[in-house]
Amino acid sequence: MTQQQTTGGDVRLTGISKTYGSFTAVHPLDLTVPQGSFFALLGASGCGKTTTLRMIAGLEEATTGTVSLGGRDITALPPHRRPVNTVFQSYALFPHLDVTENVAFGLRRRGVTPVKKRVAEMLDLVQLGDFARRRPHQLSGGQQQRVAVARALINHPQVLLLDEPLGALDLSLRRRMQLELKRIQTEVGITFVHVTHDQEEAMTMADTVAVMNGGRVEQLGAPAELYENPRTTFVANFLGTSNLIEAEIVSAGTDVVVSVGGGTLRLPAGRCPAPAPPGGRLLVGVRPEKISLDPAADADPGDGRNRVTGRITEAGFLGVSTQYLVESPAGKALQVYEQNTGHRRSLAPGSEVVLHWDPAHTFALDAAQDME
Ligand code: ATP
């Protein structure tokens, strides 16, 4: 199984929902997971991501809607008849069996042969060939996790579901395993649906991320697209840090011009919620690392960049970068992350500064929007 799989098809959820009594854990949801993609369901605890995953697995019965795989409706199939497999955070390895037998378990149960060759291939895939005879308690957390992945993949599922599989690992191992899982997914080409509350994890691994909040998908897209162009305040704040500035629309054309405390800003019309009538209110956003800081100067260099003035209130040296908090007529505590290059400079608290950034790095949200 070290070559790409081509079986399966898209996973399609149509109007799928889950209620427990009067509580709706997942509101009717339409979602397509393209075949062969690494798809992440991302959100805070309780947002409904595990319930959604369990409905794909068949471990939870959907209240409404259907689940299909490659055009085939699998809603009524019990979990073991679905061509999917799940890896849980707890690994659920058999403690009395060694690595080989843990991985071989699914094959033996179904009477599939040859066992030895397939297990060896799987152990190669997860780079555990040297650990074949160890029991789970003789392995590190990351190694146990890889055994669980090998065991779940050996039956060639069309879809692998991963429920916070790295949750029990410490940060550095977690980072390594993120890259490792991504490598395995690319190698086998199977669709992975990965549940996590960790935005960095979702962004590192997934081709597509669905950001969930309160039982709904708020936004779905490629990681960079979600980061660069969030459509809701929840997404803007959940994926990294955002400066959100209250603004009023002055004019709208190819660029939209807005007024903020202390001046005007410009942004591409495509990054504004439509419609954008003059007088309308927006929240204008810019990521802290997109902003440059300069000591205050009188002249506007006319370079077309967005500019606001401010005064540094806090400066924190973080090694690779320096983090500033800036008080400005545009916003109380604007955050700026400046990369530390060879020439360290000190912009001390109290310094008057100009904040400037490329209008293309500006996004806007409907000030009135708020998901239920
Ligand atoms: P976490 O990251 O904490 O696992 P999650 O986003 O995966 O959270 P779910 O496990 O899908 O969230 O749960 C969604 C909501 O449904 C939660 O509010 C949870 O309390 C509720 N819920 C889940 N299972 C049940 C159940 N069997 N009965 C009642 N409510 C439930």
UniProtKB/TrEMBL annotation:
What keywords are annotated for this sequence in UniProt?
A: ATP-binding, Cell membrane, Membrane, Nucleotide-binding, Translocase, Transport
Its recorded reaction(s) are: ATP + H2O + polyamine-[polyamine-binding protein]Side 1 = ADP + phosphate + polyamineSide 2 + [polyamine-binding protein]Side 1
Gene3D superfamilies in the record, alphabetically? Answer: 2.40.50.100, P-loop containing nucleotide triphosphate hydrolases
What GO MF annotations does this protein's record show?
Answer: ATP binding
Work out whether the entry's keyword set contains GTP-binding. Answer: no
Q: Which domain of life is it from?
A: Bacteria
Q: What class of enzyme is it?
A: translocase
Q: What residue ranges are annotated as transmembrane? A: none
The answer to whether the entry has keyword Translocase is: yes
Every copy of the ABC transporter domain together lies at: 11-239
Q: What is its EC number?
A: 7.6.2.11
Q: Name one Pfam family in it.
A: TOBE_2
UniProt subunit comment: The complex is composed of two ATP-binding proteins (PotA), two transmembrane proteins (PotB and PotC) and a solute-binding protein (PotD).
Q: What does this protein do?
A: Part of the ABC transporter complex PotABCD involved in spermidine/putrescine import. Responsible for energy coupling to the transport system.
Q: Which PANTHER family match?
A: SPERMIDINE/PUTRESCINE IMPORT ATP-BINDING PROTEIN POTA (PTHR42781), SPERMIDINE_PUTRESCINE IMPORT ATP-BINDING PROTEIN POTA (PTHR42781:SF4)
UniProt similarity note:
Belongs to the ABC transporter superfamily. Spermidine/putrescine importer (TC 3.A.1.11.1) family.
Annotated protein name in UniProt: Spermidine/putrescine import ATP-binding protein PotA
Instruction: Tell me what organism the protein belongs to.
Output: Streptomyces halstedii
Q: Which gene encodes it?
A: potA
